[in-house]
Each structure stands twice: as structure tokens, then as C-alpha cells.
Amino acid sequence: VQLVESGGGLVQPGGSLRLSCAASGFSISNYYMTWVRQLPGKGLEWVSAINIGDHGSTYYADAVKGRFTISRDNAKNTLYLQMNSLKPDDPALYYCARVFRIYGLGEYEYDYWGQGTQVTVSS
User: What is the average pLDDT value for the chain, to the nearest integer?
Assistant: First the structure.
């Protein structure tokens, strides 16, 4: 199993980025998948999740709701995070992670992580 993120970079406030997470060794359509970020000097923060199936339900942390969109291309076995209206609060190392156990919304146990992709928001 491998998860490889890409798409991070430097963007101005109000700008957009699309993160990708290419999966191998398993089918992402069969797993609950998430994006998690590590803010500078802080712990991990859950960002978004997508349920299993061809049209899985999507979930968002309040901090990103209305600005970020999680999606999945099952044919490419790739998870995405479209980030719009980026704010100075959003810079972080963004990880995709496969969920092993669900305790509640945003409360998960993970079994696989990617290496992360850095997002920087600066004018």
C-alpha cells in the first residue's frame, strides 16, 4: 500500500490549489479516505473525508467547509482536495490517509499515510 501526495505549493491569499493523492496497492473506492493537515507548530487536524462507494458522501471540518472539496477518481485510483479561497490559516503539510476505524466525524484511526505535500499561503 502506498499513498503519494502532490500539488502543494505557494499561493496568494484567495488563491486555489488542487492536491492529489495517488494510491497503489488497494482500491480507494473500497475505503473511507481523508485529508489531514499539520499546521505549523500544532498537531494534526482533520480536514475532509469521503465515504466508500462510487458516490461516497463527503465531510468537512468547519474551518474549510464551503472552500475545500474532496473527490475521488476511482479509475485513476486518486484522491483529490480542491482548495479555494485559501487563507493565511491554511498553510500546512497536507496528508492523505486511509481510515482503519471510525469513532465519529473527524475521529478516525488511520492505517496508511502519504508523505505529505506542503501548502504555503503568502502574498
Answer: 95
